[in-house]
Structure to design on (500 residues):
């Protein structure tokens, strides 16, 4: 019987315990841990990574008692780590949300705007349709999807206009709000009924003068009209999978 | 004795159990949970949020047995949630890493470049100095910090040149690499010794023709020289805390 945890060593001298090698039994877990720790020390590991699936959650408390700390979760598992010395380098986890907003202007110089149902204590105001990126979704695809979901307007991506970076957003993490210029392909609005109280085409000049529009949103429209946006481009010779990468250049 | 969990209701009809109201005892936890669940159902809660500090980790298994799921972790605590119906809306967690790279060109048309120690299986190549944002750090501050740490060159922020969006990066999350134009304030390089094998000023034309430079990096330099970048700006009338927000506009 192998009394050490099986696993692999990553490029940061991190030992990743093989999830298939996690026993059901707490006693076996303890016995393997006792053997392995001195081995990790001997081999100068920086960090030990331990993934506990929900089905073996009874091991969590024991792992914590051996100095493991929380790192992140996936839906059905908890990822823990043990620093082998106090200043060991730990790969950080994701730190940001990405949101998108669409500037959609039709051939009559009217802007597609929405008003959300009152929810957050702030007064009603007209904003750009948009939302949050889904897992591994491109910015281009997200803004087209969100504009369509909220307003029923189909669009073509034109350019990235500008963005806003904000800290201490949800759960203390940061947020980037990316604004994209889109060209509409249809005109008739089909409003999403759960979150959107109102969706309409509003004359651009009226929007820029409106009392219920935030100063930032007005600045975004002025920046859109000014031009000089970032375009989505492929880079010749850059070995990218189109589903994995998107590149925005001036 | 209060037999229900104390807590607050957020704007998404999510009940957040008061962390101060978590008992040490598993029996008390079970008894409060039994009482509270029917109460949450009666009050049409969408989701129940439960934060378990590491010091009370013995409650994790019990919480999971009541249908709680992993959501995310902080250093010393695990955040769980229970959907009150299968299609309940759950606030997502952070999805992205943000990295920065600095284009630093001196008055002799030379670019500041670094070569990292061999680590990742790819061949050696000259890249831009840079790194990952720290918690709640501005992009502007991060790129200045990283360039200084890796090369000893102090800089002033000029503009945001372009960015690259990439999926399935660390732990399956996505990554945005933001490229910034910086003006150098000194010339003498002090190389960081742990990760940087070489740091030097290289003629821009030599860099653009170099065999050991990625096509994307060459495109980034061409885009920098082309102009049309996004500038960092304050928006008049936008009630921002400068430490909390940064805005990039054309």
């Amino acid at each position: 019987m192998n009394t050490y945890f099986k696993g692999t060593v990553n490029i940061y001298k991190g030992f990743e315990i093989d999830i298939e090698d996690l026993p059901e039994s707490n006693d076996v877990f303890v016995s393997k841990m006792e053997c392995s720790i001195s081995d990790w020390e001997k081999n100068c590991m920086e960090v030990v990574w331990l993934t506990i699936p929900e089905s073996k959650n009874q091991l969590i408390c024991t792992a914590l008692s051996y100095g493991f700390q929380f790192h992140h979760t996936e839906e059905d598992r908890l990822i823990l780590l043990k620093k082998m010395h106090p200043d060991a380098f730990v790969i950080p986890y994701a730190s940001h949300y990405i949101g998108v907003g669409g500037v959609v202007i039709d051939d009559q110089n009217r802007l597609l705007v929405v008003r959300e149902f009152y929810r957050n204590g702030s007064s009603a105001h007209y904003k750009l349709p948009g939302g949050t990126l889904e897992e591994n979704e491109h910015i281009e695809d997200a803004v087209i999807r969100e504009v369509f979901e909220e307003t029923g307007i189909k669009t073509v991506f034109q350019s990235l206009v500008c963005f806003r970076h904000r800290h201490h957003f949800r759960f203390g993490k940061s947020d980037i709000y990316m604004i994209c210029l889109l060209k509409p392909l249809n005109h008739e609005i089909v409003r999403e009924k759960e979150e959107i109280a109102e969706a309409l085409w509003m004359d651009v000049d009226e929007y820029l003068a409106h009392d219920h529009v935030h100063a930032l949103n007005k600045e975004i429209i002025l920046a859109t009209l000014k031009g000089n946006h970032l375009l989505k481009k492929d880079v010749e010779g850059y070995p990218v999978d189109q589903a994995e990468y998107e590149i925005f250049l001036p």
User: Anything to note?
Assistant: The mean pLDDT of chain B is 93. The two ends of chain B are 60 Å apart (CA to CA). The longest helix of chain B spans residues 26-42.
